[in-house]
Amino acid sequence: MPPELSIVIPVYNEQEVLPLLAARLRPVADGLGTTYEVVAVDDGSDDLSPAVLVRMGREWPQLRVVRLRANAGHQAAISAGLASARGAYVVTLDADLQDPPEVIPEMLAQARAQKADVVYGVRSDRSSDSTFKRLSARAFYRLIRILSGTHAQVDAGDYRLMSRATVNAINSLPEHHRVLRFVVPTLGFPSTSVTYRRDERAAGKSKYPLSKMIRLSLDSVTGFSTAPLRAATWLGLLGGLGALALLAYALIAGALGQTLPGWTSTVVAVAGVGAVQLLCVGILGEYVGRMYAQLQARPTYYIAYDSLTGPATPADEPAPLVAESAPGAGEGVTPADEPAPAASRQA
Ligand code: UDP
Ligand code: MG
């Protein structure tokens, strides 16, 4: 029997936060009065997160651990979780407790009462985020809205509840670098929202460096809009007009006998046109690159291990962890914490 609710949690190097997460999430989930599973997607962590998860799973039968073979990124990890989840409703939640699990019962109640397919968690207050994060996030959501015309709620991140129909729809999308917070609104399924206060990360550091934020923005923009391509056309047009004007000026100046040294105008024209061309080629390249990736149809993640079904190959059995393998951080991890053979862990 599949559970009624699946809680999907992407986990990347979150060893400090996982015990805190369990302590807060478990009472909430147990108190739901319905069947549930927690799908922790270990996104190729290289700290003790896998061992901590396996250990937590021994005392928490509803906890299911899905391990990805390599770090695939936040969005891909959520996608993997959505593909694995079995629930009639699925909640996606970050591991770092920025999004309070206590809101889940309200989301579920809303979904049931309003027959909504999607319940967005909307941040009412981001004062706990850094100023840079807040400002960049606001600019990011604005830009996407303008460019794509999607009605993504400003300040709705990846904390949301989705019905089975929604999850099936997402799973069937062929898109590769999908940014779920914009994909879900474009489906246009009946939705509602609950607001919550975004807290500070309970422990550990952000796993979203600037490079990952830029990548997410690029994926969002190119995934939802061809407006940048049009911008390239306009820029090219403007550059072309500028070049024409320069040409006219040079011809007239030549005809009037004002033979200028001409070095400045040449350099300016060449540099200006060159810059516009490079920009346009770069924008085209972003799209061509994505089309190429789509054609290759390379999966964005590979599952190595699922505690429900066992390892993908015998070699994927989670490695026994000994304290020496991670000096300092291995407190409490002894050979006795070695996971039981997967076969005996099947539900
Ligand atoms: N995460 C992941 N893979 C990554 C980066 C992050 O699964 O490559 C997870 C991370 O463990 C956390 C969530 O995505 O549960 C959000 O990351 P984080 O809290 O670091 O982002 P921020 O809140 O700072 O934007
Ligand atoms: Mg966070």
UniProtKB/TrEMBL annotation:
It is found in: Membrane. Residues 314-347 are annotated as: Disordered. Its main location: membrane. It is a multi-pass membrane protein. The keyword Disulfide bond does not apply. InterPro entries: Glyco_trans_2-like, Glycosyltransferase_2, Nucleotide-diphossugar_trans. The keyword Transmembrane applies. Gene3D superfamilies: Spore Coat Polysaccharide Biosynthesis Protein SpsA, Chain A (3.90.550.10). Belongs to the glycosyltransferase 2 family. This is Dolichol-phosphate mannosyltransferase. It comes from Pedococcus badiiscoriae. The lineage of its organism: Bacteria, Bacillati, Actinomycetota, Actinomycetes, Micrococcales.
